[in-house]
Give the backbone structure.
Amino acid sequence: MTVQTSPQTAELAAEFTAALQWWRDAGVDLDFTDDATDWLNPVVDEAAKPAQGAAAKQGSPSHPAAQTGDETAQKNSVKRSDFFAGSPPQDLAAFRQWWLEAPGLDAIGPRGRIAPRGPQDAQLMVLVADPEERDRDQLLRGPQGKLLTNILAATGMSGDDIYFASALPRHTPMADTAALASEGMDAVTLHHIELVSPQRLIVLGTGILPLIGQDVSNPDTYLREINQNGRKLPVLVNEGLESLMAMPRLKARFWRRWIEWTAQ
């Protein structure tokens, strides 16, 4: 039996498919409210899952409780490193040199790392997750950097008043920042911030939060300040530059946050 499709139905289906593709090309596949909602992955109904057998209830590997215990043990077994080997850099010049030359900072080695830039005691420190893919001699020289330059220019701030830094020394897509933090990279990030001693800190990318000691499980508890040596540093956490480029409406939300933050 052959089902015939009317021209009107075929045209409507083509328009619907084109509309979905347009949103995908624009990078809009998530609905950002207070929490991100994944539109593309199916929702798993826990109540519909088959009941576990008696062996599972007693703690077999297939039982959720057993899996949780294994994951906890694995996390606890992570070896924490002292990347500074007991001698952290005492000023920004020494930190930049260490950042570019320290052999154990990442698995690849010193070649290709990008240094931070800017003055100590900066009016604002901007922290991104990692350098852009095409960064070579300077951090944020690509399209994300251009967007950031335009944003900061609109705030009326001069580039001489801003310190630009990345939490990781090279372009690292899909980095497991929680694992890196547990291995000791959080101490590097916090020491870097302490050396800069900025008046304010913007964190562009929620994936950075484990590297500054923040639990990312609850967006409502994102930190608003860092206490360093008795000094409270105001912090603004926002989506990363890549998200701002892909979803223009996030720029408007950033501006609302910026206005509220700077008015304090």
Remarks:
- Strands lie at 30-32, 36-38, 124-128, 162-166, 201-204, 225-228, 231-238.
- The radius of gyration is 23 Å.
- Confidence is low (pLDDT under 50) at residues 42-68.
- The longest strand covers residues 231-238.
